[in-house]
Amino acid sequence: THIMQLMIRYGQPKDRIVFVKLCVILARIAIKTTSWAADRICSDVIQYYESKVGPSGCNQFIAMRIYLVFLKTLPEELSKTSVGKKRSRSVSDALRKERSSILNKFSSTANFLANTKPQNATVAVLRALIFKAALSWKEMSLAKNIGEALSFLNCPILDLAAQDVALFWNVDNDVAESVRDSASALIASACDEYRFICESLRPSAKSK
């Protein structure tokens, strides 16, 4: 809980270096702590920060930034954190099962931000972060097959990414470029995976 409280204190973009370190620490704690139910990690963190929104806590955008960076970091740290095979499998299985609901959370958050007024740099940075987090979760598929690839291509977050590529296409500043690049990277990754799987299913020349 102390780490989670510190993340609120250092949740501003100006404290990015400290904040990212804290996210990595929390992700590793979550992965290693066997008493923390693997299928509760994501929901516990999201609910904790959403409950802290208010005059005595943090504003809504800071809360979003915290849980989005954490969710982006968690799958990335899973392969880097030294932990027993049983716990590693438990967390990995839980994240794979949660992928759909987490992607839906990203989509609902992106929709909320798209309808937020005014559309300022803070909102745009969060939109870019959503696409980066979704790219991290794309790898948490239950199986690398055509069904999974198609499922991801049809995920609402891909539609929102396409909309943001178009929206920021002719906007020339660093924030717009970040949104455009992160959205484009997500779309390209999904398309590349689908193409790779399709090509792997084609009969080889030797089998003809």
**Main pleated-sheet profile:** none
- Oligomeric form: single chain
Low-confidence stretches: none
Please give the radius of gyration in angstroms.
18 Å
What does this molecule look like?
With 208 residues, the protein is mainly alpha-helical. Helix content is 73%, strand content 0%. The mean pLDDT is 88.
Which tags fit this structure?
73% helix; single chain; 208 residues
Short characterization:
This protein is mostly helical and 208 residues long. It has nine helices and no strands.
Give the helices and strands, then pairings.
Elements: H1 2-9, H2 16-32, H3 41-51, H4 60-78, H5 85-114, H6 121-138, H7 146-153, H8 156-167, H9 174-201
